[in-house]
Design brief:
The complex is a heterodimer of chains A (354) and B (117).
Chain A: H1 4-18, H2 21-58, H3 74-83, H4 95-113, H5 130-138, H6 140-151, H7 155-186, H8 191-197, H9 203-206, H10 208-225, H11 237-240, H12 250-274, H13 288-295, H14 299-318, H15 326-353
Helix pairs in contact in A: 1-2, 2-3, 2-12, 4-5, 4-6, 4-12, 6-7, 7-10, 7-15, 10-12, 10-15, 12-14
Chain B: H1 3-28, H2 58-81, H3 83-86, H4 88-111
The chains are: A mainly alpha (354), B mainly alpha (117).
Chain lengths: 354, 117
């Protein structure tokens, strides 16, 4: 299977041949930054378009269809429009925290984005505590959301941020415990190592029943962590206008919107990395011919198909179910999801011992 | 390239993304001088008082519970990595830890901390 390491090594050697080692390192850092920015922006455009189209089809509408063929440039047009809008600042708001909030939200999602193994040899950050890193950095978003709600000095924002904060921190526990099931099974927290271990079978198949339960609980918890769908208490538009970003306008609102969609992608990508084998192709032990054919499909295609599958499930849930109340939402986490996750973790450790 | 250096690069990238977009928006976007645009977005009537006030105590209870269980997650991760080598002994000691936590959750549940009233 073709590895992206060949490309990065070729860039590395050709840069080193024409400049000093420090200069080459600097250029490589800039290239990494640009690659992450471009990937982030393109994915956001794609996701916003896909969500609008899928939502339209669920509701028997056409969705965006004017800008370009089938409206494919709609999200580009929206992005340009949103850049050209005035940044309104409320008189009574806390000016510095108001601006700082969007930084926190975007840092939380971009830094997690960098740690995802997109394809064979294509991973910017590969810590040996990768799972832990992803959980830790993605919770920076909560700080941003609470700051946004608090600094706006608006009642809608405040209530939205409080609800959102309670929801995000609650569901983070379930997400962490679900991922821990796979850590128990694989014995490592390094994402590249976890993907490598799934070469002969994805964890959802190899890991017996607990891995499957963990996959389902992770999808539910992850879905709640993106503030979407039936869990969008934070921006229940019929009661809170837009929740914590009511007072934001222009590109600052765009950052929250962007982070929400990229968090959806990150949740789906982590789910496919941990449970569905990441970029590993589908291998069935014993079927050598089949396995060989599967190896010809590029690794990034495998990754994106799995991630898109998880994202489609999230969009399906979002447009199919009515919104939960805040007490139902927190009750679901603390009374149902978390006990299931704890028992599931013990079940997995028993499976590992046996 | 060490991972920490790449992490710093990604962090700076995120900051540059936000900062540059904000600057572009400040530079390109029109500005209106209408004083009403600085008002809080509510129903149209002038808003009363500040929003920096007391809010529901239920959120604090969930925050405290979260603190307990999140610290538990942090403690469990190192255990999870070496679970295979520890074997039944490791599971037994963590089971004891789990029981204490479950008792704590049951206590909070019984006391009504999870109820939204």
């Amino acid at each position: 299977m073709w590895s992206f390491e060949k490309l990065t090594e070729w860039i590395d050697t050709s840069l080193r041949s024409c400049m000093s080692a420090d200069g080459a390192l600097l250029v490589e850092f800039v290239l990494i930054g640009i690659a992450i920015l471009v990937g982030y922006a393109l994915l956001a455009l794609f996701l916003i378009y896909a969500e609008r189209k899928i939502c339209a089809f669920f509701q028997c509408r056409l969705g965006p269809n004017r800008v370009g063929k089938w409206g494919i440039f709609q999200s580009v047009a929206d992005m340009i429009k949103i850049l050209l809008k005035e940044l309104i600042q409320i008189n009574k708001s806390d000016k510095m925290l108001f601006r700082l909030a969007s930084f926190f939200v975007i840092i939380g999602s971009v830094c997690t984005f960098g740690a995802i193994p997109f394809a064979k040899g294509l991973q910017a950050i590969d810590f040996n505590v990768g799972v832990f890193y992803i959980l830790a950095i993605s919770s920076l978003g909560v700080v941003g959301i609470l700051l946004a709600g608090w600094s706006s000095n608006s009642k809608y924002s405040m209530i939205g941020a409080m609800r959102s904060g309670a929801q995000l921190i609650s569901y983070e526990i379930s997400a962490g415990l679900s991922l821990m099931v796979i850590v128990v099974y694989s014995g490592t927290m390094q994402l590249s190592e976890i993907v490598a271990q799934q070469a002969d079978g994805w964890f959802i198949f190899k890991g017996h029943v607990p891995a499957f339960i963990a996959f389902v609980t992770y999808l539910i918890a992850g879905h709640a962590e993106t503030n979407r769908g039936p869990f969008d208490m934070a921006e229940a538009e019929s009661e809170l206008t837009a929740g914590y970003h009511t007072e934001y306008s222009g590109i600052q609102f765009g950052f929250f919107y962007l982070a929400e969609y990229l968090n959806l992608f990150i949740i789906a990508a982590v789910a496919s990395t941990m449970f569905l084998g990441g970029w590993q192709p589908l291998h069935i032990p014993g079927w050598d011919g089949f396995n060989h054919v599967m190896d010809y499909i590029p690794s990034f295609l495998w990754f994106f198909v799995k991630t898109c599958f998880c994202m489609f499930m999230a969009m399906w849930v979002r447009w199919s179910f009515p919104r939960l109340r805040i007490d139902q939402l927190l009750g679901l986490e603390w009374k149902i999801l978390m006990p299931i996750c704890l028992i599931n973790l013990i079940l997995m450790s028993v499976v590992v011992i046996l | 390239m060490s991972n920490s250096a790449v992490f710093l690069v990604v962090l700076i990238t995120a900051m540059v993304l936000v900062g540059a977009a904000l600057l572009i928006a400040l530079w390109l976007a029109p500005r209106s001088t209408n004083p009403l645009k600085g008002e809080v977005y509510e129903c149209g009537i002038p808003t009363r008082g500040t929003s920096w006030m007391q809010f529901r105590v239920g959120y604090y209870l969930f925050a405290i519970l979260y603190l307990v269980f999140d610290v538990e997650t942090v403690l469990l991760f190192p255990w999870a990595v070496v679970m295979r080598e520890l074997g039944p002994g490791g599971l037994a000691s963590v089971l004891f830890f789990f029981i204490i936590l479950a008792l704590g959750l049951a206590y909070a549940w019984k006391k009504g901390a999870l109820k939204w009233k």
